[in-house]
Specification:
2 copies of one chain form a homodimer. By secondary structure, the first copy, chain A, is of the alpha/beta class. Chain A has one domain: 3-Layer(aba) Sandwich (Carbamate kinase). Helix content of chain A is 37%, strand content 26%. The first copy, chain A, is built from 8 helices and 14 strands. In chain A, the strands form 4 sheets. Chain A has an 8-stranded mixed β-sheet with strand order 5-8-2-1-11-13-14-12, sandwiched between helices. A two-stranded antiparallel ribbon of chain A has the order 3-4. In chain A, strand 3 and strand 4 form a beta hairpin. The longest helix of chain A has 25 residues. The radius of gyration of chain A is 18 Å and the shape is globular. In chain A, 53% of the residues are buried. The interface between A and B is large, with 40 and 40 residues.
Chain lengths: 259, 259
């Protein structure tokens, strides 16, 4: 089987022109098939503010109301995605920008309202591996924005970490698949204050202990849940690292291990 | 050869939810391969205003400064394009949203500065028929936004009429290609005040006479220039009509004829 590397990068990296160029240069040098999933970033908030769209938050999470969905479509699907695609092309990568609606690759359901109505937030239902696989076989490099659709004409705002995991799981039967989450830190840290304390192999039971004692918390928990879920579903390797480490992926970051 | 219908629709039609749904329903019923090119529309101006981006005009034409390029990427490449793609999927069309940068399908050059600096406006240099053709053969329905790229990382704002003509020309050797320009009127009119005065066959020399005596003027001239250029370059049929006529394309509108 051919190797496929799925890279997830956050919005912050892709919004800064210099860090984006460095990221894409490193990305272009990764051997084998590759796919990039990008996050949203702060420009959505900035643009929403300028447009007078109120950001509604519940428990620290943003609510995607109709106006915010328009902003997400504009910023994630348009501005950020097309900027990355054009820059990839300049690095010789035959990039193609996609949301879940394009070629129907990722279908989602509007998150059911329980205690909180998250608005136009989508929970992934299915990934069409066939279409992505066809693009990859033709040497296209998919660049995926954090948007899905419900199959009934509606775009939905979707978590990029989850999308990267779901894409990797769907392609794991056809490719030897590595999923790499890039974030600000060099890996999962045993001491949050010490960047040299990277846990190079994170075993699932240790993740649970770290979670209990608070060493691992906040946004890292869903990221690792997604990662372990991917490993369990046949993804060969899940790495958490800094985007600066993309050029030397084999040596750095935290690798997830089931037991 | 298989039949391909390339439809160009203006921004106004795609911005109104009701007219867009009707358009896409009719579009979904067109037999054979099909491709949609959409224009920009007024929402770009509205959003630019809200963002405090000043619209610069010279001789009635908009200048694409850096801020306006961002707005074009957001509105054309994101909001409008992804809305159309999601709605196409709901009508059972396997739509894929594209700009010229995606799969490198349309390369352009930043318009050279002569008397006027149009900013980030792109003049089409080349269309890669191969990638579009491959998508069409896999039953994908390309939905193309009026944006191209220069191959060096820059997105450029590009006239949608020209893009539709260039795409049709590039695909004319592989498909029996019809190019349909949809606009507000039922066709080219011999009396601009009378919607029933549709010229059903417009011969090139008559177009030139109508242009001289002012019957055909303003925005219709570049549209027809593009259309006759397409016919000369092997496109089988060019029709100018109203989007409401898409359901009965064989009967209505103006067909261009060289002589």
């Amino acid at each position: 089987m051919q190797k496929l590397t799925v890279i997830k990068v956050g919005g912050k990296i892709v919004e800064d022109s210099e860090s984006l160029s460095q990221l894409l240069e490193d990305f272009s040098k990764i051997e084998g098939k590759k796919l990039l999933v990008h996050g949203g970033g702060r420009s959505a908030t900035t643009i929403a503010e300028k447009l007078g769209v109120k950001t509604e938050m519940v428990n620290g999470r943003r609510i995607t109301n109709a106006e915010m969905l328009d902003v997400a479509m504009m910023v994630y699907g348009g501005l950020i995605n097309k900027n990355i695609v054009a820059k990839c092309q300049a690095f010789g990568l035959n990039a193609i920008g996609l949301t879940g609606a394009d070629l129907n690759i990722i279908k989602a359901v509007k998150r059911p309202v329980k205690d909180v109505d998250y608005g136009y937030a989508g929970d992934v239902v299915s990934v069409q591996a066939e279409q992505l696989s066809l693009l990859l076989k033709h040497n296209a490099v998919p660049v995926v924005a954090p948007l899905t659709h419900n199959g009934e004409g509606l775009i939905l705002n979707t978590n990029a970490d989850t999308m990267a995991a779901e894409i990797s799981k769907a392609l794991a039967s056809e490719f030897v698949c590595s999923l790499v989450y890039c974030f600000e830190k060099p890996g999962v840290l045993s001491d949050p204050e010490d960047d040299s304390s990277v846990i190079s192999r994170l075993v699932y039971k240790d993740f649970k202990s770290y979670q209990e004692d608070g060493t691992i918390n906040a946004g890292m928990i869903p990221k690792l849940d997604n990662g372990f879920d991917a490993i369990r579903s046949g993804v060969d390797e899940v790495v958490i690292t800094n985007s600066k480490a993309l050029a030397k992926l084999n040596d750095l970051g935290t690798r997830l291990v089931l037991d």
